[in-house]
Design a protein that fits this description.
With about 375 residues, this protein is mainly α. It is built from 15 helices and two strands. About 80% of the residues lie in helices and about 0% in strands. The chain is globular. The N and C termini lie far apart (about 95 Å).
Length: about 375
């Protein structure tokens, strides 16, 4: 009976309609099985990422929500970064369930729609996270290069406006993943579960030959180059100011007037440096490999080894979205202090909130009305 049903289904599909041939395609899908090392990466590596990432990103949101930090443009950008990182990790849970726990979604839900959703959210969150870091670097660069204009240029409102533009551009770039010519490719196979439709050969070739390379440059290469350029110029400016001759009288007056503000800005610079270091370390290897691997001559015979390396480096890249909080705690005394104060406030210590409000009010007055204090 089973053989009769299979034959009838195949005959009906090929003769009476132009729809996709079901069973032969499923036989094709069965040829691609995730190697054991890929499954282990999802079973062991990703739970570690989730444990670190969700706890760390929530803690970052709690910390940067302090008045001391969120009243500064850089602090607002770090809040956006934590939200975007959390969104990326949330979508990774779907991959963990399918490829790690090996619970198949194909045939159980609308896999085509799932592919559109997971690809769209993953890509948009990656772009937003990468370019939010670039914006943080730009914010720090402006404060170093144009300190007297930073008060009007680097505001939370303008920072959020830049983020809105980034989100809009990212949505425009990846709206194609919601189109009919994108969706299911090889369900259950980690590196190619979702992708361009094989029935639109022009878009299929464009996606793998060109668009995949564009993605790597947009998410990794260009942000890294820009951040390095900003860092180099920041370093040059800081060294040149240290070498400048400053009158002793002015030094004392300036130090007394802006001590808290300068400490805050220096600590935010440290936070930026730690985040950029993590981004560079975790994203560069996978970017280089993704550019190189499709150019191998024997890709058809090396697909399983490519999948193993690709998934391993991909897991390493997910750490970029999980460990920022811990690097901030290790490198910044201000961040540790604000985190402790926020925890105390959440546990009912109202004095912790008051101290933050007093510090913020002091910084605001000194930043906006410096001339009144001199008069």
């Amino acid at each position: 009976m089973a053989n009769t049903t299979l034959a009838q289904t195949t005959t009906t599909t090929t003769i009476r309609s132009n729809t996709t041939i079901t069973y032969p395609i499923e036989y094709f899908y069965a040829l691609f099985v995730n190697p054991l090392v890929v499954v282990r990466f999802y079973q062991i590596g990703y739970p570690i990422t989730f444990l670190l990432g969700f706890i760390g990103n929530i803690a970052s949101l709690i910390t940067f929500s302090r008045l001391t930090l969120r009243k500064v443009s850089t602090g607002c950008l770090f809040i956006v970064l934590a939200i975007s990182d959390t969104l990326f990790l949330t979508i990774c849970v779907i991959d963990f369930v399918e490829f790690g726990l090996q619970i198949p979604f194909y045939r159980r839900i609308s896999y085509n729609e799932l592919c559109k959703f997971r690809s769209f959210i993953t890509n948009v969150s990656q772009v937003v996270s990468s370019w939010t870091l670039v914006t943080i670097s730009l914010d720090r660069w402006i404060r170093t290069r144009f300190p007297y204009k930073s008060g009007s240029l680097c505001t939370p409102k303008k920072a959020l406006l830049v983020v809105a533009v980034l989100i809009t551009v990212a949505i425009g770039l990846y709206a194609q993943t919601l189109a009919p010519f994108y969706g299911i490719l090889i369900p259950g196979f980690s590196i190619a579960a979702c992708g361009p439709s094989i029935f639109d050969i022009n878009y299929f070739l464009f996606y793998f030959l060109y668009w995949s390379i564009v993605q790597i440059f947009v998410v990794s290469i260009i942000p890294v180059i820009l951040m390095l350029l900003f860092l180099i110029d920041i370093y040059i400016n800081i060294r040149s100011r240290k070498r400048a001759v400053v009158q002793p009288g002015n030094t004392i007056h300036e130090t007394n007037k802006s001590k808290h503000q300068r400490t805050l800005q220096n600590q935010l610079l440290v936070l930026m440096l730690s985040s950029i270091a993590i981004f560079f370390i975790t994203t560069t290897p996978v970017a280089i490999y993704k550019i190189a691997s499709p150019r191998q001559k024997s890709i058809s015979t090396e697909i399983l080894s490519i999948a193993s390396i690709w998934v391993g480096l991909g897991w390493f890249q997910t750490l970029n979205y999980a460990v920022n909080f811990y690097s901030h705690c290790l490198t910044s005394t201000l961040f540790r202090k604000e985190f402790r104060l926020q925890i105390k406030y959440l546990l009912g210590d109202r004095r912790a909130r008051a101290s933050a409000m007093e510090l913020t009010a002091t910084i605001t007055v000194r930043t906006q009305h410096p001339q009144r204090r001199n008069s």
